[in-house]
């Protein structure tokens, strides 16, 4: 579903944000947060989306991150993409101690009326007679599938490797530019999210341990 607000439109299926038809860059986590805000507001205008709802929509229950910092990062990225301000919001308003409210009017396409839905075409009549080439091809295909199934059944099972535990510490901004502090602060959460999705059965990711959230000069002591 495509949500339209102001000069923007957001495709909920592709998570793509556009302004006047041009794509606006938005990272996956902020895009998921924006999708939830728009979907809830389209259903119930003036609804307040809680921080817990955003947390559950953006991260899985197996992901261990600093959710408060992660939510703050997502909100800041959404506002930056929309050219919005937390002090005088035109789109995203912070409701202290409760959550966030999308304050701009949203228009979403309505579903097709029943008369606009085309009926399914009638099924094609069955063929009167199967040609000889098709019969031969069917026999070959059946034989191939039988051999493949036998191979899979007889193949010895592999022993699953032991799980790997990976710890992800925060990144340090060593550029000397304060404007990069916030983007750098959110990098560790992005790394944790991507590692968690690689192979949950084999990879365990730790990102919220206290020592991993300390600056490097303290971690190295």
Describe this structure as you would to a colleague.
The protein is α+β, with helices and mostly antiparallel strands. Among the domains are: 2-102, Winged helix-like DNA-binding domain superfamily/Winged helix DNA-binding domain (Arc Repressor Mutant, subunit A), CATH 1.10.10.10; 164-173 and 182-219, no CATH class. It contains seven helices and nine strands; from the N terminus they run ββββαβααββαβααβα. A four-stranded antiparallel sheet has the order 1-2-3-4, covered by helices on one side. α1 (28-43) packs across α3 (67-82). The longest helix has 23 residues, at 132-154.
In short:
The protein is of the alpha+beta class and 221 residues long.
Topology:
Layout: E1 2-5, E2 8-11, E3 16-19, E4 22-24, H1 28-43, E5 49-50, H2 51-58, H3 67-82, E6 92-95, E7 99-102, H4 132-154, E8 164-167, H5 181-185, H6 187-198, E9 203-206, H7 216-219
Parallel strand pairs: 8-9
Antiparallel strand pairs: 1-2, 2-3, 3-4, 5-7, 6-7
Helix pairs in contact: 1-2, 1-3
What descriptors fit this protein?
221 residues, alpha+beta, Arc Repressor Mutant, subunit A, three-stranded antiparallel β-sheet, 7 helices, 38% helix
């Amino acid at each position: 579903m495509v949500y339209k607000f102001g000069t923007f439109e957001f495709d909920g299926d592709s998570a793509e944000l556009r302004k006047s038809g041009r794509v606006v860059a938005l990272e996956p986590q902020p895009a998921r947060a924006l999708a939830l805000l728009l979907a809830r507001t389209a259903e119930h205008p003036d609804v307040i989306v809680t921080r817990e709802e955003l947390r559950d929509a953006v991260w899985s229950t197996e992901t261990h991150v600093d959710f408060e910092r992660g939510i703050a990062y997502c909100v800041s990225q959404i506002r930056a993409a929309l050219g919005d301000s937390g002090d005088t919001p035109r789109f995203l308003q912070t409701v202290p101690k409760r959550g966030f409210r999308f304050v701009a009017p949203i228009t979403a396409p309505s579903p097709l009326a029943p008369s606009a839905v085309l009926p399914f075409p009638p099924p094609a009549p069955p063929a009167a007679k199967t040609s000889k080439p098709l019969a031969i091809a069917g026999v070959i295909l059946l034989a191939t599938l039988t051999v493949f199934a036998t191979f899979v059944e007889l193949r010895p099972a592999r022993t699953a490797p032991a799980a790997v535990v990976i710890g992800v510490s925060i990144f340090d901004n060593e550029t000397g530019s304060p404007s990069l502090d916030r983007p750098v602060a959110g990098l560790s959460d992005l790394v944790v999210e991507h590692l968690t999705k690689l192979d949950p059965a084999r990879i365990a990711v730790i990102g919220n341990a206290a020592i991993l959230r300390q600056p490097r000069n303290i971690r190295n002591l």
